[in-house]
Q: What sequence folds into this?
């Protein structure tokens, strides 16, 4: 989109003058003046580092707003403020082209759209901002879908698809945006898309099929099928893999510790999962004692299906599941290099525009299923009236697992089990590097919703909002949850906790080089400007902050618990990151 030229009868104002006027307007805005945005209008401007330009939108409560900024020659960050000046939305990450912003208002009054140069120190340049839509939030479910998906619609953006059904009838099926920006291929409901961890229910289903055939039992020791695995002190059963209660390290978090940049295409081979388990010195918890979401476990589950069937997992799924159910647009992608017909590419915003980015390696079992939203309706209809698999197996998959202490986890076999609007909800979300998905099934009314996208910023939990709209007649109205009194007490308690405050002499104790035998990785620590800094060859530097306990630090998405000998000398540390914890590093100098 070109900058708007100012005109008066019989005369064209040159672009140079337009740019000069835009700069003057921007200057006024930086001094506190604002411009009100009107639907359908486009306003040109220019932006410099350190400058904040503001636009206003007068809105009622529960209005829908959609706008876009054409970043002609400047990378823009967008903040949305409510009438009280509180931030209610933030958009950015796409350094070139059209960046859209959207949302609904929770209160009436003047809302502010703030524009600034991304990162605060980029180059100056020009932009255009347009308010595309300003209207009440739709009460009609189909119109609501169009509002929710509007940010991902058009030929300039990765897209999304939605499928809604009830009692065997499709209520809604529509796609938005593009499946492939390189070749200009639109997203359709038939587009095959990486559904990420939504795949886990397929792996669990495959295990259940093998149990039905008498080729395994959920109570089996996993080493009876994969004997080369480590013999831990405790027995891991097959069911522990399917319920995230095995105690195994989570391999994606673990590989990140080694410097593997998974979001930048670093390769992981399936064979590494077994190697990771073989190197783990002890379980993180007793099997069945703790729920800890775990991709390693589902990778092993797929291997057990292969060992008990004599088939590669992708072949097994095609012959035993997808083919018999008529899911023609579905397959397990055995590697990120395998061809998937009619698929969507995954995209993530970057400073140079949308970046095409591949799938995780070694995802088979934990992910790697490609499916269309049309096929996912077919899949869930098999839950309602099984054509493949038994009623008993499917019901067991949809039953919350009970831990050793008697508590329920809210997770069955490859499926989350919960409630929405008084109805049982069985669901699973998924994300690969850039793809996003959610599948929600309401068995009591035989209805479901699935959404998927090839845009890394897509929020797949909108599936629940859409379900509430389409199945309103069957759901109880749920109150919006505000700040609970307990939440305030907890915040006060956290604020009262004094973090450890090491001196520079204290920090010197941790300076040095450390090595982990388990993951064959070096970390180096130095003291810089009064703080401790961690360095790893591929992860680079990360400034660490002291934790609440002495000798503990955090930074770079990880936490460090340093270990001392009886003389008080630092001899190592234990590294934790989300689902993987207590990986030991020993001092080497």
A:
């Amino acid at each position: 989109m070109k900058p708007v030229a100012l005109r008066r009868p019989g005369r064209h104002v040159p672009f140079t003058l337009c740019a000069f006027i835009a700069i003057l307007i921007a200057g006024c805005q930086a001094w506190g003046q604002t411009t009100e945005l009107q639907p359908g209008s486009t306003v040109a401007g220019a932006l410099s580092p350190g400058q904040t330009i503001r636009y206003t939108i007068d809105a009622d409560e529960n209005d829908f707003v959609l706008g876009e900024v054409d970043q002609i020659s400047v990378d823009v960050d967008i903040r949305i403020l409510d009438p009280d000046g509180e931030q209610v939305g933030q958009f950015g990450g796409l350094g070139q082209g059209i960046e859209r912003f959207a949302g609904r208002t929770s209160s009436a009054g003047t809302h502010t759209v703030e524009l600034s140069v991304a990162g605060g120190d980029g180059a100056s340049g020009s932009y255009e901002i347009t308010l595309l839509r300003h209207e009440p939030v739709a009460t009609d479910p189909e119109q609501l879908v169009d509002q929710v998906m509007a940010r991902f619609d058009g030929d300039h953006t990765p897209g999304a698809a939605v499928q809604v059904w009830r009692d065997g009838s499709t209520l809604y099926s529509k796609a938005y945006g593009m499946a492939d920006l390189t070749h200009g291929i639109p997203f359709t409901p038939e587009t095959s898309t990486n559904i990420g961890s939504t795949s886990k229910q397929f792996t669990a289903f495959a295990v259940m099929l093998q149990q039905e055939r008498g080729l395994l039992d959920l109570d089996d020791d996993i080493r009876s099928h994969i004997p080369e695995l480590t013999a831990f002190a405790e027995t891991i059963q097959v069911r522990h893999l399917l319920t995230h209660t095995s105690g195994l390290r989570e391999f994606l978090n673990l590989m990140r510790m080694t410097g593997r940049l998974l979001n930048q295409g670093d390769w992981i081979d399936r064979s590494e999962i077994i190697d990771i388990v073989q190197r783990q010195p002890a379980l993180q918890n007793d099997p069945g004692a703790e729920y800890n979401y775990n991709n390693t476990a589902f990778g092993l589950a797929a291997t057990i299906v292969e060992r008990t069937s004599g088939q590669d997992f992708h072949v097994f799924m095609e012959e035993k599941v997808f083919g018999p159910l008529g899911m023609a647009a579905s397959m397990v992608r055995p590697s990120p290099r395998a061809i998937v017909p009619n698929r969507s590419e995954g995209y993530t915003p970057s400073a140079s525009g949308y970046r095409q980015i591949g799938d995780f390696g070694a995802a088979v079992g934990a992910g790697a299923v490609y499916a269309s939203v049309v096929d996912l309706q077919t899949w869930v209809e098999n839950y309602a009236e099984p054509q493949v698999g038994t009623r008993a197996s499917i019901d067991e998959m949809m039953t919350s697992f009970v831990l050793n202490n008697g508590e329920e986890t809210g997770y069955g076999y490859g499926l989350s089990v919960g409630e929405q609007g008084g109805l049982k909800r069985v669901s699973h979300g998924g994300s690969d590097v850039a793809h996003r998905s959610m599948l929600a099934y309401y068995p009591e009314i035989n209805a479901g919703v699935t959404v998927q996208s090839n845009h890394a910023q897509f929020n797949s939990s909108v599936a629940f909002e859409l379900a509430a709209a389409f199945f309103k007649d069957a759901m109880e109205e749920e109150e919006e949850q505000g700040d609970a009194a307990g939440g305030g007490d907890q915040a006060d308690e956290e604020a009262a906790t004094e973090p450890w405050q090491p001196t520079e002499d204290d920090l010197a104790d941790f300076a040095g080089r450390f090595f982990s035998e388990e993951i064959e990785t070096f970390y180096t620590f130095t003291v810089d400007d009064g703080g401790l800094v961690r360095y790893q060859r591929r992860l680079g530097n990360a400034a660490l902050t002291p934790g609440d306990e002495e000798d503990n630090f955090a930074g770079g998405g990880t936490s460090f618990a340093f270990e001392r000998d009886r003389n008080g000398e630092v001899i190592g540390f234990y590294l934790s990151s989300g689902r993987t914890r207590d990986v030991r590093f020993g001092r080497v100098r």
